[in-house]
Amino acid sequence: MKLYVAGKYTDRERVSEIMRILEKQGHEIVFDWTKSSNNDFREVALEDLRAIKEADAFYLVYSNELQGAWTELGAALAYGLPCYVTYEAIHSHNVFLNHPLIRPAYEVTALPFNQKAVEKYSAIEMEVRPNERK
């Protein structure tokens, strides 16, 4: 699957590590912004949006104080992409994380997760979307 992976710029080492894991599992990363040295923010914004549009799905590595990644998530939702979000997002109050296209990241990758967090995410998801489970 072609993935656009978003995250906080200051967490780019963690995001890059997750990208490598996803690639080893057979996924294609459409744009590795963690290696970009482009300081022209206009160009960066346009490149990010082009890459999101090219992707089959969006993958958000959640952390506190996300900024541009929320915009990228909005673009992915507007393009109708399935959006996979890491389990830490269960602590966020962003209303868009309840959108029907949002799915837990563990559905697309076998990243090692804390089982209690996965169970908590699933329990919350059942409360929010009881009729949408597969």
Automatic annotation (TrEMBL):
Q: Which Pfam families match?
A: Nuc_deoxyrib_tr (PF05014)
Q: Which Gene3D superfamilies match?
A: 3.40.50.450
Q: What's this protein's name?
A: Nucleoside 2-deoxyribosyltransferase
Tell me which species this is from: marine sediment metagenome
